[in-house]
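Below sits my pick:
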Amino acid sequence: MELKEAVWHISDFTEEIQRRYEEETTIKESVHFNTVDKWFRDLEKKGIHYIQRVAEKKVYDELDIDIAVFIMEKRSQKWSLDAISNVLSANLEVRPFPDLKNDESQVLSESQVMVEMGRKFEKMQQEFEERMLHELDLKKKELEQQLLNRLPKPKTNQEIRAEKTDIMISSVRERYEIEEKAIAEWNTQPMEQRVKKVGFFRKEEDMLKRDNFIREYVKKYFENVVR
């Protein structure tokens, strides 16, 4: 018959019912696939529910999902398997056993199962890739934010003006100090270099020469600082 929905083999089926159970109950419950296989073997032995086969291997679909989740819920309430079997068909749809004369119509073809499993795998792969891209995008934004947090905060206009004022004051103070040193150095120069004659009998400090000396002294100082 034509395959209309996804099917699983026992191991994948067990993972799927655990996921569905958690979605419905918000409880994370673990169950071994051997346990699940026994549930359905018992149902078949009792003639309650039939499991489809592909190439003589059991496959499970959405109908089996509903039954497995129902069993998990009842088992969590301490119901026995016999008690669950007795009420199963009254609460859920069960699959009838195939007519042996028309057995082929009840068995899914292996090619149908492979096609459907391929579609399921592609969907899972696409979801995985989308999830990874989303996580990478979040990680990128987180790293960008961390880098931004490490950068110094931009200075306010008031802070910039204050810094400029401090620099200007420091520069003026430094220049005054250098000029004072230059004057002290000038005063150590020989008298004949510092004074000039004014008329026949008077001498006075050569201010032009003094200013040039101070200017050259300051200039050399700052040239040495720059180097």
The chain is about 70% helix and 5% strand. The chain has three domains: 10-108, 109-151, 157-226.
